[in-house]
Design a protein that fits this description.
Elements (H helix, E strand, L loop, with lengths): L1 H30 L26 E11 L2 H5 L12 E8 L2 E4 L2 E4 L2 E4 L2 E2 L11 E6 L6 E14 L5 E15 L5 E3 L11 E3 L3 E9 L9 H8 L19 H6 L22 H6 L11 E9 L13 H12 L4 E5 L13 E2 L11 H9 L8 E7 L4 E3 L8 E5 L2 H8 L3 H18 L20 H9 L10 H5 L6 H9 L59 E3 L5 H10 L14 E8 L9 E7 L9 E8 L4 E2 L3 H14 L2
């Protein structure tokens, strides 16, 4: 009897195992993705229109950074104290009519109100706001609204408060594609996942629950990319171009076609796509111009020396000024999780750090990470002197800002506000050299005749004094030489800006002449110890060295239709950025003996920013058929598939 019972038990176990195997096979058949196959003409295409068969469907909204835009105006008001008052604000996220707020920090058996009290949430230890919402299965889209609410004081002694909605933007998130549209969208003018409002600047991301955790929705993997929704594609690089599928998908590249990402620089900021990918954590966008700066601070030289400090207000003033012109400025003066020797390091004291000594080279080699060279400008807040120089080769990526007791007293008498404005001025001036504004391109830049003889000073005021830029010594530190009319203007609006070109003929619009890649290319002039500005006679231009020629032929006489297409496809994807408002020149190279399906056209551009020196940059690749160029477009692929779904074909 015991053996019979044992045999029956074994039979039930065997039967159970068979049932489990059968169920597993059925589940695999049901859940296995059914990707679109290569089909012959006329053969039926099978589309898997399921949205979330592998995981419980939900949406995640991350607000990565919020920056208040009001500090610059407050800081530039003489004798103002408003700049000391940090704003208080919070974030509201509304998803399909349900609102979540960052001020409500829910904890066990209660809650707490939490406000950001800062000009920039990155300076609050990178505090981010994340909201998750469950949505009904197979839901096609969600409406998302992000609102920034500021709490302001009013009444007698400001003892009352009220909450005011400052900026709000609304998006429609598509669960099939993982894209959103509305007030922000891919290739929009302030950058995908980046909203610049009247009062606040916001960086954010939206994505959905995803079985393999690569952020690419099931529908897109199965029907568009033909990748597996069971495998994390953030670790896959099927075309071997150095960038994984997930990044290429996000920014509209073909993950299965080798792209020259080592040299591709569609936004012409000098940060090529492989570097943009490496900087993803720090909000890098391949289609918006980004400037990255690392700041280290020199130690005290003695007990009587001053404590050098890179003021948060100086940083925010500069970020805002560049933001107004469509350029993202990121300054690492101590970011959490930055690499070894990242920003905010203390470097040894050096009494004299001139352009002709090796001190900057020592800092550059020991305190500036190799992986940041070619991406960041390197700044040392040091003792005496201010300059922008090459530390290696002839590339202007090293900056020294002098803050000594002597220089401290030249502006400290005007108060704490003046310290911050002056520091921002000095950095903006030297940064301008790394952006292409030089004495040999603009004679008003670094022109020392304002401190010359009486006749030189008179001539300068009649000419280059009209060049109202921080690149002009007159408007940075020449207040003691100004006639009363200029001094009144200088005091009325403490100057922190590049010129806008509104005072011809001795003026230029610096903003439209900036060239962001200047810091990573060899300069057109070599400043040896005997160099004296302006140095126009020393200029040597070699503008073709950035173009690959082996096996590539220049396409002569581009048609008007092709140029128009390049304008729409290439510059149409760029953010709003003044340096490229003057347009660009085009060159197209075609590859000899290209194989079928291989990219055989490279598009180069050079911005029209004379007298600033610019070189040719690779900004796009495509397929040339002898007359026209075709570019890969995920949007077209998605639209074609959706048309088939809607038509039932």
């Amino acid at each position: 009897m015991a053996r019979k019972k044992s045999g029956g038990k074994e039979q039930w176990i065997a039967t159970g195992i068979i049932v489990i195997i059968i169920l597993a096979i059925v589940a695999a058949i049901v859940l296995m993705p059914r990707p679109q196959k290569e089909v012959a003409k006329g053969e039926e295409i099978v589309i898997d229109d399921r949205i979330s068969p592998l995981t419980n469907q939900g949406i995640i909204v991350e607000v990565e950074r919020v920056r208040h835009r009001g500090l610059l105006d407050k800081l530039l008001i003489p004798f103002s104290r408003e700049w000391k008052n940090k704003p208080s604000f919070y974030v509201e996220v509304t998803i399909d009519g349900k609102t979540f707020s960052s001020k409500n920090a829910t904890i066990l058996k209660g809650g707490k109100e939490y406000l950001y009290v800062t000009w920039d949430t990155w300076d609050a230890d990178f505090k981010e706001f994340r909201m998750v919402k469950d949505v009904e299965e197979e839901k096609a889209a969600s409406k998302v609204t992000i609102t920034i609410v500021e709490r302001v004081n009013y009444g007698i002694l400001g003892r009352k408060t009220k909450d005011i909605e400052r900026d709000s933007f609304t998006l429609t998130y598509d669960y099939r594609t993982g894209r959103w549209s509305g007030d922000d969208y891919l290739y929009d003018k302030d950058g995908y996942g980046h909203f610049v409002g009247e009062y606040f600047e916001v960086w954010f991301n939206i994505y959905q629950t995803d079985f393999d955790g690569d952020g690419i929705p099931y529908w897109t993997e199965v029907n568009v990319l033909h990748t597996s929704p069971f495998i994390d594609d953030s670790k896959m690089d099927p075309d071997g171009d150095g960038i994984p599928t997930s990044w290429e998908w996000k920014w509209g590249y073909d993950p299965f076609t080798w792209d020259n990402h080592k040299y591709l620089d569609p936004d012409l900021d000098g940060i090529e796509n492989v570097e943009e990918y490496r900087m993803s954590e720090w909000l890098a966008n391949p289609f918006t111009p980004d400037i990255y700066v690392e700041v280290d601070i020199m130690e005290k030289g003695s007990f009587l020396d001053i404590n050098r400090k890179f003021y948060e207000e100086s940083k925010q003033a500069l970020i805002e000024r560049f933001c107004q012109h469509g350029i993202n400025l990121y300054i690492d003066d101590g970011w959490p999780d930055s690499p070894k020797n990242g920003g905010g390091d203390k470097v040894p004291y050096t009494e004299i750090a001139s352009q002709d000594t090796g001190s900057m080279l020592e800092y550059y080699e020991r305190y500036f990470p190799d992986e940041r060279k070619g991406i960041f400008r390197y700044v040392v807040l040091g003792h005496e002197g201010g300059f922008c120089i090459p530390s290696k080769f002839n590339r202007y990526d090293s900056i020294h800002i002098g803050v000594s007791r002597k220089s401290y007293f030249t502006y400290a008498a005007l108060g704490e506000r003046a310290k911050r404005v002056t520091l921002a001025k000095r950095l903006m001036h030297e940064l301008g050299h790394s952006l292409g504004i030089t004495p040999w391109s603009v004679q008003g830049c670094d022109n020392t005749s304002i401190w010359g003889s009486k006749e030189e000073k008179k001539k300068f005021i009649q000419t280059w004094a009209n060049y109202k830029s921080v690149m002009n010594y007159y408007w940075v530190a020449g207040w003691f030489a100004m006639p009363l009319s200029d001094l009144i203007e200088y005091m009325k609006f403490d100057f922190l800006d590049y010129s806008d070109g509104s005072n011809p003929p001795y003026d230029q619009n610096d903003w439209t002449h900036l060239y962001l890649p200047t810091f990573e290319i060899d300069a057109s002039v070599i400043e040896d110890p005997f160099f004296a500005p302006p140095g126009v006679d020393k200029i040597v231009l070699e503008d073709d060295k950035n173009i690959s020629r082996d096996g590539w032929i220049l396409l002569e006489n581009l048609s008007d239709a092709l140029i128009e297409k390049l304008e729409i496809y290439c510059t149409g994807r760029l953010s709003k950025s003044s340096p490229y408002e003057n347009g660009v020149e085009w060159r197209v190279y075609v590859k000899e003996n290209a194989t079928d399906g291989e990219i055989n056209a490279r598009v180069y551009a050079r911005p029209n920013i004379y007298p600033t020196h610019a070189i040719w940059s690779l900004i796009a690749e495509g397929y040339f058929d002898g007359k026209d160029i075709t570019f890969y477009s995920q949007t077209d692929i998605v639209n074609n598939i959706l048309e088939m779904v809607e038509s039932g074909s």
